[in-house]
């Protein structure tokens, strides 16, 4: 069991680029914590990011198919090789039916192991932090880290401490709101937010014009001021007319935190900080290089550039998808019929303390029963007192006895390792007719939805999404 | 290698009576085995086997007789197995330099000892090639500590695989980065830590937790990667069974050095270690033909031995522990090994009770092996249920280093996280190098100096360099270092004070050892759980001393109790015993038992009143099962404490299913290949707050019992039946 090697995949389709990453890890008991974990991760396939293929106003479905085929052929993996993973579709790639096209193309190839989520900005912030800073954060216990994941369309901030994320946000600050002809500053495209910004700066520029030095400086200065406002948690900055157009999810900020960067702009920034040459003027056809260089001149944003260097950086999100989007359950689940798995898109209808009373449990189970495809209830807290599990199980049993219908899957998610015992008490040791599943060793992800995968060697993969 | 049938061995003879008097006392010993056993320092294993002399005068009487016997006398009387035959291990021991033997055959053992003490190293080595294991063992029984050190020091041996080890003036180390779950990150961290302390020139060698071809192959490839990326001039090995390693070699995995544990009797070697001399011969030839070091190495075999293994399996053929150990060396010598390692002290108090027994055995083993021509490394070690201490272990290493020991282990901070025992550390190895003015192997030293691990003073002295003891040296980033560090249990920090761990680190380490020892010596204080009162059963181990020193006693019920019991024929009989940790019971049974009982009652199981049996062992299940005629006896028992304080509270659940109906017993016999099988066993271990919590374990144990009773099977047969159920399920 402890030696099971699994393959995990991450696919990231963004406004600008799309990335893939395949990692190998082992499912096993962590030697220190005793929890089941994906350990000793090793990247085994990491192609260069490519531009997300758009045609006219939409995604180019044929090109997406070809891209996926190319990645799979080059990686040497078959769809059935994957234990779990994640696909995230963001920005322009998530607009209208683009997300459906991409999700279908991925689903057709990989099937049920990988879950696609679209336009889940806080999940993206969380993934970027986990992919780039989770280890760094544990290296500096007690010191908060604020990671700014700056890509083409958005900046996704996340604040974390000791490896856990406590706050996320999302702002339309990125490299690609102003697209230019590579090697020049002649505008080829301006996003909706870009237009609002030009207007607020009283700059009249259209596609075909050159973004000259003063205009470029004004745009970049505003972006840096906006990023500094994100860091400081300055809500007034985003309360203005132009500010509102640039904020999707507000972020509380943290002035004392160490600041790190990821995403494409973050990658360029660290290259610059390390004294490495950057590509030539607007090499990528956007303002990414200029933005990175401007951030490097901000005393606030650049203060930890050399002292706190995160991992993965440009691939933080896709790495986070492969390695962190899936949690591995404990080995002693309560799962009377493994045939009911996988279960997809289960809403997490309630988050209760592990000592919750009968009324709260009854309400949660009644709510869960309204969902035709089943639902999850998350129990929060550590191991209860000695007979606490029995009492909790008996309360659940009583509530289940009053609920109907019984055939809808009800999944209890809990952190301490007592899934089997709780399940046994909640079902009178299997004698009560229920469709209860208890999955333990699940950390609290503050998510609205969960996917429970098929068991493998006694554990199930669980992924979460909907982290607004 | 000389074919076995071509090795000449004299025909065995009937036991003779050896007699002498000391002042007014007469002493007689029947046969060489008894004489050899009585002549040795008194050790726990030989006492249990009835071979040790009862007192000092008897021991000296035996030594007096032994000293007067000629080598020819020993040669002419090969020791036999229980059926009076010369076994294959004994036969291999007779493959000696007969010409050299001819020159010393008429010497008495006493004269030979004097000769070796007077001789130069070249003569000591020549004579060593003429000795069988029995002769070497007889010789060391006449030696005191200084003599064991002096003679061994004259017989320093070197060997070359990728690098040359064992040169004069060197002290090497085998890095032993074991991890309880073979976690590759954890192994990497321990390799980096060891290399940064100048350890690992002898070998990077992992004892695996799981002996499958797939896992061993993965570990080999990982060690190979670490060797290449660090550039350390050394060799690698994963210490699995020789058959697994040969399968890995067949697949193309880098089996640079081939490992196998050896035993001094054929029965132990074949029945317990699943190895024959023929297999070892084939393995050695295979390595010569296909091993990855075949073009650069002179030798590639690695053997591990240690006094007491034959005895604990009850397959020592009436020979004492030192003789059995020497016979291992005679077998190892056949393959001209790259390294041999001795782990005397590993088994526990049933073989070596205290520091003196362990230290003397180590010095004997080292001397015998060196005399017999082996490049010998030592691992003076202990478990917490013996009375051997860290101080005793450190005394052993000082003496063994004076005796010219080739290498020691580097087990990080002394604590093996996988095998739950205590061995030498990288700090110890460096301390010994500094105290005795020794260096690592030359190629490795150069590599380490380039990396600032060592530096050279103007007078040529090798000093610790600026990077000594800093594993961060090998990591590409702080994040990588952090990730690796998080995967190592019982890592208390890398601060050092000179070559020693910083006091803060030592205090944590010693506190954990103390907690572990206390768990073993704590009394079982539990009378009732959840309103349920235990009935107390006595085992044949009347007290803790007897329990620790003779494991067999805890497997039996006290005689007076057995006669009072009558069959109860319950479905499940629960037995709670301290085993090697009463604290494990105190911390787990109160939470586990109520859940388990609820589970069993839900299936209307007939449960016998639970039993509390202090000083018990796992096999007590059979004594209870036979007496009470329960279908299944569940033994909840404390595990042997290791180095982690919390793990000292770890408990196991053993399920002994009694094969009482003829059809089930026939099926079990067919499955196991053992026609006499009476019980089948399953086990769930690691029950404690840091592993499987007791509340959850209650359910897991209950469900295992349901499975056993439903399938009328336990152990591998049960798992096989469950797997076959799954396949046939629609």
Attribute tags:
heterodimer, A: 468 residues, alpha/beta, Nucleotidyltransferase, domain 5, 3 domains, 7-stranded mixed sheet, 6-stranded mixed sheet, 12 helices, 31% helix, 27% strand, B: 730 residues, 4-stranded parallel sheet, 30 helices, 44% helix, globular
Strand content of chain A: 25-35%
Q: Quick one: biggest sheet of chain A?
A: 7 strands, mixed
CATH architecture verdict of the largest domain in chain A: 2-Layer Sandwich
Globally, the shape of chain A reads elongated
Strand order in the largest sheet of chain A: 17-23-22-18-19-20-21
Number of strands of chain A: 23
Radius of gyration of chain B: 27 Å
How would you write the strand order of the largest sheet of chain B? 21-23-22-24-25-26
The proportion of strand residues of chain B reads 5-15%
Briefly say what this structure is.
Chain A is 31% helix and 27% strand.
Structure description:
The complex is a heterodimer of chains A (468) and B (730). In chain A, 31% of the residues lie in helices and 27% in strands. By secondary structure, chain A is an alpha/beta fold. Chain A folds into 3 domains: 4-118, 2-Layer Sandwich (Nucleotidyltransferase, domain 5); 122-313, Nucleotidyltransferase, domain 5 (2-Layer Sandwich), CATH 3.30.420; 329-467. In chain A, the strands form 6 sheets. In chain A, strands 17-23-22-18-19-20-21 form a 7-stranded mixed beta sheet. In chain A, a hairpin with a 6-residue loop joins β2 (17-29) and β3 (36-45). The longest helix of chain A is centred in the middle third of the chain and has 20 residues, at 213-232. The radius of gyration of chain A is 23 Å and the shape is elongated. In chain B, the strands form 9 sheets. A 6-stranded mixed beta sheet of chain B has the order 21-23-22-24-25-26, sandwiched between helices. In chain B, strands 7-6-5-12 form a 4-stranded parallel beta sheet, with helices on one face. Chain B is globular, with a radius of gyration of 27 Å. At the A-B interface, β2, α3 and α12 of A face α11, α12, α22, α26 and α29 of B.
